[in-house]
Specification:
2 domains; two-stranded parallel ribbon; transmembrane helix; oxidoreductase activity, acting on paired donors, with oxidation of a pair of donors resulting in the reduction of molecular oxygen to two molecules of water
Length: 377
């Protein structure tokens, strides 16, 4: 049964007022941004580095010490891999993603500059700024314009054309989760166009060059340099780095998919954004996004993308403010009769898993969204 209440259709005047209220909420919040936000992100970075150093140290202790004290090997390496995975999650979700959105540009600190920050995954920040910050956030869930709909691999919505290839998607989805950073890395390369020979000669080579360099640096750091520090006992360190990256990949995949592909999330045709007003834009972000309940720890571990609705409304507002913003956002949505999609992590991910399984097989587009426009009454 749908979690969403029936949506009240708004008159043009109501839709304008809806957008104006949400704009005003952003303006009030941005007027408060300052030292509190700078202190917050600097504290997160300090803890991230501490946890990451501790994880790498434990991997070394387990690898080297385990050769002489066998019972030390597995406990130290398992705890080390978990800590390193946690540090990578914090770097990607709470620091990298939010810094690249420009949330901390007000600090004028080169460490938190959205245009120069390079994060700890094989994908380049430059490509992410285009595929995510621009295309995804501008054209959220617009079919044929938002490349995050299925990432070119999965059929998540019935409005996507079915092909026999999608029968494999339950298996592909698992592999994609395990190697999610690699999928993000190649997303902007448009491999499908290259395979179909629809790309100008030499473009793939030019586009891949910076991605290839970033991949090489990450592989060298995680699977050569740090393991080499353990000398002949390198294997546990190498495996620990592999596990830590896998933990980060799977968690990032789960959070992102729960934020966009739950049962009540919608997609929209290209014509829905013609002459799109501010109110329409907010409405599209609202109906294409989903939140995850879970409290402050969940907020931290997701980079506050547990408040995906608020993030899509205000991508440049420091994300740790989304929890407070969500109270007023939800009240505004209720007052205008608009749905606010939220649920526990197990429930939201269960809906995502069902979508992946269901739409691996042929299915008809929903009548209400076959040619949906976010129309007013």
């Amino acid at each position: 049964m749908s979690k969403l209440t029936a949506t009240r259709r708004l008159s043009p005047q109501e839709l304008d007022a809806f957008g104006a209220e949400l704009d005003a909420l952003r303006a009030r919040t941005m007027a408060q941004v300052g030292k509190v936000d700078a202190d917050y992100i600097r504290n997160v970075v300090r803890w991230m580095r501490f946890i990451g150093f501790g994880g790498r140290a434990l991997l070394m202790v387990g690898a080297i010490g385990g050769a002489f004290v066998p019972w030390l090997l597995w406990p130290a390496c398992i705890l080390g891999a978990l800590m390193l995975g946690l540090a990578k999650i914090l770097e990607n979700m709470e620091v990298g993603h939010n810094v690249i959105h420009g949330q901390y540009d007000f600090m004028a600190d080169p460490q938190f500059n959205s245009h120069t920050y390079e994060w700890d995954i094989v994908a380049t920040s430059d490509n992410w700024r285009h595929s995510h910050n621009f295309r995804h956030h501008t054209y959220t869930n617009v079919r044929g314009m938002d490349d995050d709909i299925g990432y070119g691999l999965l059929r998540i919505f019935p409005e996507q054309r079915w092909r026999p290839f999608y029968l494999l998607q339950p298996f592909i989805a698992v592999v994609f989760a395990l190697y999610f950073q690699w999928g993000v890395a190649i997303q902007e390369l448009k491999l499908g166009r290259w395979v179909a020979r629809k790309m100008p000669k030499g473009k793939m080579r030019r586009d891949f060059a910076p991605v290839g360099r970033k991949m090489g640096r990450q592989l060298l750091k995680d699977y050569v340099l740090f393991p080499a520090l353990a000398g002949p006992f390198f294997l546990p360190v190498l495996l620990g780095n592999l596990v830590a990256n896998g933990i980060r990949n799977v968690w990032t995949y789960v959070v992102i998919f729960c934020g966009h592909f739950t049962a009540d999330a919608e997609t929209f045709p290209k014509e829905s954004i013609r002459n799109e007003s501010r109110g329409h834009w907010y409405m599209r972000q609202l109906r294409g996004s989903s939140n995850i309940g879970g409290g402050r720890l969940m907020n931290l571990l997701t980079g506050n993308l547990s408040h995906q609705i608020e993030h899509h409304f205000y991508p440049d507002v420091p994300a740790h403010r989304y929890g407070a913003l969500s109270v007023e956002v939800r009240e505004i949505c209720a007052r205008y009769g608009q749905p606010y999609n939220t649920g526990s992590l197990p429930r939201q991910f269960g809906e995502v898993a069902w979508r992946i399984l269901r739409h691996a097989f042929p299915s008809r587009p929903r009548r209400s969204t076959t040619s949906r426009k976010l129309q007013t009454a």
